[in-house]
Design a protein that fits this description.
alpha/beta, 3-stranded mixed sheet, 10 helices, single chain
């Protein structure tokens, strides 16, 4: 029998390990639901640091030498990986600033929860291409069924429930990622959002678009006009504002952060993100 609800995130490689520790600390400040971590290329002795938080479940992510690719492959497999009837996926460089119980409740009414990307217009989504080609014709030429009306969503925060429509959506997402994105790496960057936009355009699940307060990318804070308190801050730990760092501050995380300088690579210099 599936559990009713829970969180899921992805940790592939050591560059995001500090982010993940603080991710767990933030979730546990506001929520008690189980947290699944899809994990790859993390030594067992470090995995015990994650298990120090209660009700954390480690499951293997798709193995790959490239941790960014492993993360993308894990993301398109989130539907099968989740043991929950209702799942909230959050990138592990996210910090909760408040409880988000209402997102689980929203999944009683719709199949899927998502936020729009800072650049929502797919025709302007230069973040998907390696070069300076025309964006929409290039995406269409390589095989993504997108149009000028297609929206680019940010896949850092996703909510979904078990349903036939969502099973179809994730199957399409995986198919477009594997058959289009991976086979056109000379043209496309190694990102999952183009494939996700195509899957959403194809399947059209019942959907609730959340405001940016549920996926506030601090790097692009000048692009937002928000009047409500931010609930979900999307920002890697080293660049996180102090008020957000205070959310996860404890004796455990203070000791961890001191030691992390010596045994973890610097996540802001991750060379795999530039490939």
């Amino acid at each position: 029998m599936k559990e009713a609800k829970g969180f899921i995130t992805i940790l592939t490689g050591l560059y995001s390990f500090q982010d993940c520790v603080h991710f767990l600390a933030a979730i546990r400040k506001f929520h008690t639901e189980p947290i699944v971590i899809l994990i790859d290329r993390v030594p067992v002795y470090l995995q015990t640091l994650l298990k120090a938080f209660p009700n954390v479940i480690l499951k293997p992510a798709p193995a790959n030498e490239n941790p960014v690719l492993a993360s993308r492959l894990a993301k398109v497999a989130l539907y099968e990986a989740s043991p929950f009837e209702k799942t909230i996926f959050l990138d592990c460089d996210i910090c909760l600033l408040d409880k988000i119980e209402e997102l689980f409740a929203a999944l009683d009414e719709v199949d899927f929860l998502v936020t729009e990307d800072v650049q929502r217009d797919i025709t302007k989504a230069s973040n998907l291409l390696r070069g300076k080609e025309e964006i929409l014709p290039t995406l269409q030429k390589v095989g993504l069924p997108v149009t000028e009306k297609t929206i680019q969503y940010n896949t850092g925060v996703l909510g979904y429930r078990k349903s036939a429509k969502n099973e179809e959506l994730f199957a399409k997402w995986r198919s477009y990622f594997e058959s289009v994105i991976l086979k056109n790496q000379d043209v496309l960057l190694l990102k999952d959002q183009g494939a996700f936009a195509a899957a959403m355009e194809t399947v059209k699940p019942s959907l609730k678009v959340l405001p940016p307060t549920y996926n506030f990318l601090d790097k692009w804070k000048g692009s937002y006009n928000v009047n409500e308190p931010i609930k979900v801050l999307h920002c890697t730990y080293p660049y996180r504002p102090q008020y957000a760092k205070n959310i996860t501050r404890s004796l455990y995380t203070r000791i961890f952060d001191r030691l992390a300088k010596w045994f973890l690579p610097n996540q802001v210099e991750n060379p795999w993100r530039r490939r």
